[in-house]
Amino acid sequence: MEKFYCPECHRTYFVNTTQWRCDCGSPLDLGFGPQFPLKKILARSPTLWRYREAIPIKKDSSILSMGEGLTPLEEMEFSGRRVWVKIDYLFPTGSYKDRGAAVLISKARELGIKKVVEDSSGNAGSAIAAYCAKAGIGCDIYVPESTSSGKLVQIQTYGANLRKIEGSREKTARVTMEAAKKTYYASHCWNPYFLHGTKTFAFEVWEQMGWKSPDALVLPIGHGTLLLGAYIGFKELKEAGKVKKIPRLVGIQSAACDPLYQGFVRGLDEAPAIMKGETVAEGIAIAEPVRGRQILRAIRETGGEVLTVTEREIGAAFKEMGQRSHFIEPTSAATIAGLKKYLKKKKGKEIIVSSLTGTGLKAVEKIEISGKGRNL
Ligand SMILES: Cc1ncc(COP(=O)(O)O)c(C=O)c1O
Ligand SMILES: [Zn+2]
After folding, report:
1. Domains detected in the chain
2. Is the pLDDT of residue 293 over 60?
3. Per-residue pLDDT for 375 more than 90?
């Protein structure tokens, strides 16, 4: 049976619609028994729903789908080394957040929810708004005022109520938590069903690599929903006896906002409070990652690490990816800059998978401003 459990104090809760954190304050995880029937998976259409028995939605009629998932895994070469990159900006709303939103809002529909609130740096809000529109569920999306206008217009186009909050991303989160006292909190950071959508990244990589785990995943980390999803997915595959190992998790942060890097290199259990500087990588500009303890644990358990990249390195990676025909968000350029750094550090023959998580089309003004003034 599905249940919520706390990774810190190990309390358990029945799945319900109001509890979004443990009584001890920690985010909750979801206990669930996934299965991986290969013949059935292969017979299904190329979407993330092909891993149906591993996704915690009870009834098929609850599923909301726009054909999302099973994104291309492109082979690329960096400094003479082969790397595989998931093209996750090809999701319907232009970012990998659709993995989480499709599953979370399908669950909200199954639970009979009529309205949700969510806070985001933009992409998660766009994804939640799109799937809510499909479900006929009302939604209020809270974003920092400085969010790229492409994402704001997108959220409004899906019919969500857009609430722009003056000040930091953290202030936006605090305002939303107040609203979440009365309305279902469809939070990509707090709600564990979101991670049970982002975990499909792992299932797709497993299938596309010939039913094997790669050696390492190089992924961006803000709140870490892709990295934790990948960890959960490979852990489930390992526990089901489908793969031998969970890949090494390598997280990439901007040097201007690096709480997880600081926590990692200082050997801390959680991400420390940091002073946040300016970065063009708005998707990973998270000073207080909600699941910081879990992210650090997962990275250490898999023998991974955290690397940071400068604004100049992000700019160079952005240009290079353009020349390779990929118009990506600066946040995704940060991942590529980190991947290049990891390749330099780590000689040898590791099989490495990374991801292009968001399209550049939504962040045009940030790219233009940065281009004129500074880095891109
Ligand atoms: C394009 C893009 N990539 C990566 C991330 C980082 O995701 P997370 O905060 O879950 O680590 C975000 C978050 O908004 C994003 O928009
Ligand atoms: Zn607890």
Report:
1. 73-95+198-373 (3.40.50.1100), 97-193 (3.40.50.1100)
2. yes
3. no
